[in-house]
Amino acid sequence: MSQSKPGGGRGAVIDAVLRWRELSILVVALILVAYFEAANTDFLLSDASLQNLSQFVAPAAIIACGEIMLMIGGEIDLSAGMVFALTPFVMHFAHQAGVPLLPAVVLALIASALIGLCNGLITVTLLVPSFITTLGTNFLLNGVTLTLSHGTPVEAPEDPIFAAIFGNWGYSEIIWAVAVVAVMHTVLRRTRWGLHTIAAGANPVGASEAGIRVNRLKIGNFMLAAVLAGLTGVLESFRISSIDPQAGGNSIMFLAVAAGVIGGTPLAGGSGTILGGLIGAFVLGVLSDGFTLIGVNAFMFNIILGAAILAAMLFNIHVGRLRRLGAMR
Description:
The protein is mainly α. The relative contact order is 0.19. It is built from 14 helices and two strands; from the N terminus they run ααααααβαααααβααα. The chain has one domain (about 20-320): ABC transporter involved in vitamin B12 uptake, BtuC. The chain has a two-stranded antiparallel ribbon with strand order 1-2. The longest helix is centred in the last third of the chain and has 30 residues, at about 300-329.
């Protein structure tokens, strides 16, 4: 008859955290929801609050999916925010030129993919660090967007049904986000592309020697990140019925990266979680809306966000070490 080891319950909890990296941030999210709901009963019980929360979470979660794929491979895209700002203008000008609305959106997303292709080619063929490549692209695209728009917002195309599907209805953006997360989670965990991305991020040389086309994977992930950023820009333009060249592109990009990091994806590469990115975006949304409802100064959000990123990085490093030790035993 087997006997349980002392501390076995605690060991089981630690093993669960190590196996399911989203567990810890999910617990944090539930604690935050309970706290803000106790502080203000309108936090999640009103339709308006739920819509506000979902509209904060969705853009960061969608862009985070692309950023997480890049971070797993040891790269990052700092230009995603400017792709987010430029893509709706490409759609707008194509539609003005007589292209039907859906093909105009497709053309805009193709333009986003081409930007991602350029980022990827510069990074892998010229060996420029992706931080530098996309930092330069970020400023370049910002200038292009301001030049094309003359720094002036324009109205989103008027099509009630299309607009409702693409962001204008209160919950359409979060539905898009959940769908994108579901697809990308499957890609990361169940397909050769995702598994090879993890392998390439953990050991690029070993992955290349094993026959994995590391450079092609990286270029594909740069294109994916740009397309998701462009899609988010289109969704946001229909949600607010306006296309603004200065609509916070950089802030949404950093929120997406923060969501990925808080959700359990280290910047060092080799591991990551799409579901964690969604939960991380939810945590950021809860903090933002919760502080607003209980009357805390908005500047506190940046303080908490910075502390959360640092804490998440320290936690990820520590858990990574424990996971490696467990694998060696």
